[in-house]
Amino acid sequence: MHKDCIYLDNNATTKVDPAIVEAMLPYFSDYYGNPSSMHTFGGQVGKAVRLAREQVAALLGAEESEIIFTSGGTEGDNAAIRAALLAQPQKRHIITTQVEHPAVLNVCQQLETQGYSVTYLSVNRQGQLDLNELEASLTGNTALVTIMYANNETGTVFPIEQIGLRVKESGALFHVDAVQAVGKIPMNMKTSTIDMLTLSGHKMHAPKGIGALYLRRGVRFRPMIIGGGQQRGRRAGTENVPGVVALGKAAELELLHLEEATAREKQLRDRLEQTLINTIPNCEVNGDPANRLPNTTNIGFKYIEGEAILLHLNKHNICASSGSACSSGSLEPSHVLRAMGLPYTILHGSIRFSLCRYTTEAEIDAVLAIMPDIIERLRALSPFKNDNVGWLQQQEKSVLGVGR
Ligand SMILES: Cc1ncc(COP(=O)(O)O)c(C=O)c1O
């Protein structure tokens, strides 16, 4: 892909900010000491790690001692879930949702084979949870509730603090995968009900392979990775210093830009979304229009395949993504859209545009200029048109019957 592509796939990963590259570079070559070493050379590096911890803590409204550096979102989710269970061995029940990232869902599925019972809360057509279902599922045996802040595919934001109040009443621990929300929604752990929170650097203009886990002071924790006792024994292994420095700088920049960048992204996103919906027939927005990340839109274009749209966009150097389970190389419709009960015709034709602070008006104009033509051409070739509605309805019944 040419470096000048129009990149609207920022929920998948983001460009590393040049200021972040600059901040981390000296820690490969000039300051390469081990942050745990006694000598001054290592001490300078230790200082940089401490500064990064302060910067990440500031973004979350947390204390420095509550930040554990990890290798990213997947490790944060795994570590939080396992730590919560190890700390309460007598409790054997977990609550999560049907629309979590595989970094949570696959851990929960594995835990089911190890004697835990897991409740997967359902969502409605807009991707929202029913808090009564949550309340009814909480028992004295519930060790952990792990729920994402915002959905990576639709951008739907869950009412995390309302959920947290219910979780606290039950005595369970509350973990939140906030990989998509940090930097887009203001966070303040001092007034929050969250016990543990996962974030990932590469969703906020830091490099891939670095992240952090927030662990509320006083919450019992059993580390997943043990060894040299780094990070107060909570995550062993010499820190990825350039990555840690980058994450700190990224946190500083996110805090600095949060208000103005998210307002701008929302305005661009709304223009993209509204214009597409108003000019292209038979399409609709997937997700909760009222509670959504400011940078994300997921739109279902009926009667065509999302992958075909992406290939056409790709020819014009435009990057977006579809709801298929691409990581597994399959073209199965997304588990998130299926859980929302979307009809077959929308499930397969949904694509996601996700913006960032670098997205420009001109880039949105370029997408708007090309989309109606792409959709019209694909619909002209589509076998799934109005004359096939009976067949489609049958498919919808079978997909929804099996998939929910
Ligand atoms: C909601 C969510 N959780 C977890 C992850 C995993 O993060 P990482 O790629 O840093 O392991 C992602 C990444 O796509 C995500 O969107």
TrEMBL record:
Main EC class the enzyme belongs to: transferase
Cofactor: pyridoxal 5'-phosphate
Aminotransferase class V domain segment(s): 6-367
Domain of life assignment: Bacteria
PROSITE patterns per the UniProt record, alphabetical: AA_TRANSFER_CLASS_5
NCBIfam families, alphabetized: FeS_nifS (TIGR03402), PRK02948.1 (NF002806)
Protein name stated in the entry: Cysteine desulfurase
Gene from which the chain derives: nifS
